[in-house]
Amino acid sequence: MGLGTIASRVFGFAKTIVLAQALGVVASAGADSFAVANQLPNNLYAIVAGGVIGATLVPAIAKSASHHDGGSSYISKLITIALVGLTATTLIATLAAPVLVSIYASNWSHEQLALATAFAYWCLPQIFFYGLYTLLAEILHGRSMFGPATWSPVFNNVIAISGLIAFIALFGADSAGVRSVSTWTPQMIALIGGTATAGIAAQALILFVFWRKMNIKFRFDFNWRGVGLRETGKVAGWTMGMILLSQLAGLVETNVSSIASGEDASVFALQTAWLGFMLPHSIITVSLATAYFTRMSNHASNNNLTGLHSDTSDAIRRILALLMWAGAGMIAISIPFSRLFTQTFSESTALATILVVLIVGLPAFSALHVLLRVFFALGDGRTPFLVVLFQSVLVCGAVVACAFLPKNLIVVGVAASLSVVGTAQTLLAAYLVRKRLGVSMNPAVTRSLARATAAAVLSIVVGLLVNAALGGFSANGFAIASFGSAFLAMVIIGIVVTVIYVASLFVLRSVEFNEGRAVLRHLIHQVRARRSRSSGSSE
Questions:
Q1: pLDDT, tens digit, for every residue of 369-384?
Q2: How far apart are CA 454 and CA 146, in angstroms?
Q3: Which residues does 323 contact at the CB level (< 8 Å), separation at least 6?
Q4: 425 part of a folded domain
Q5: What is the domain count for the chain?
Q6: pTM here?
């Protein structure tokens, strides 16, 4: 799963880099217009079904496997409901594109709203394919097949990159973001928006190949009674409310961030920084938590709270040990990393500042991902709703206050609001999990976090010193002189941070260090065993 996610993210970064060359990042009205339009299907899908499917489907599939037909009847009903709902939602959303765009960017000019709306007509059909992808992926996850869903986004990114390269070849690059919104033609909009949607479609449809290998029989079934759908709906209702709250907060964030569009870092800059923020979360947290969630759901269905607590503690402990290393690396390489998407030193530092502020909240964000799944495994949607309500109210208030900052600080303020409030939200969730499971905080988790934090702080200090030595804080420095030098600087800094972090864990006698060493020894043993068998067979 980790390898698949890394491959997908590498291609995702390549897509964002090419997109930045085509449209620009900071102060680019065209990039912000596409960013809002391309984000709409994500937001609407999340409201309608995204969180509901992710939170409720795996536990329900785990239970349905005990049915006489192995869960095929349940899955047929579920897919039928989902396809009907997704089709209706996609049609309605596409027809309402002008209204939706104006809601998310209420302070834009008529010309920029028109451009974003044109992009939205091409992008909103993604809602259907996002839903299909999530549905098929969660069915595979429920049957403990985790790999295909992490690799299929590669197809998406390859198609999107091809479209962007064709756009640059036909219409030219605009890495400085100076192209006026009035110069966009229908052909330009169709090429970028159309290939973006084609990529999402490919990402979903390729999963049918693996889904059929699970030997799950499917037929359209409009008799939606039975096999536990009512029980699933109870959790889904609370999850729907939770997603609505999150999207309300996202709506406020987008509107406030869009104030600076065309002048300073705005919507696309925040999305680009968020991509860097999500890289370690996707590779580490989602990969591990997805596997743990299936186990946690099985423990919950058997009322094994001890096993549920043990898996939760192990997941958080191991995720944070890896995440603190990745976060330290992202902070240390933030400026050369930002240079991959920007052209000038000022643009790089602006994007790097947003990224660093977001990364501060990364450990809490990833821990929350695991903690909320404890409640989902237990069939409790009400508690996560209350946790998100707490976060949404505070975030909305803090982000609205950011609208009164100077334009060059608005997005930085939004990022800081997300990190601070997100940390408070995670502490609340940890308290509620401890109360629900009736056990105290596992001391191993707090010890692991303390060691990882100490190692990360030292790694950041050394990494920033290396960054400075490579000229990362100078307008004419090697680390930001060009795309190639920035990439090389990232590699050097990343190696130094990794060595310091691992050495620190060794000195601090970290349990996770010993676990990692055991895993490496096991892998080496497997490789040697395979070579030995291969040599024996050839002889």
A1: 889 888 878 877 788 8
A2: 33
A3: 280, 281, 284, 285, 362, 363, 366
A4: no
A5: 1
A6: 0.73
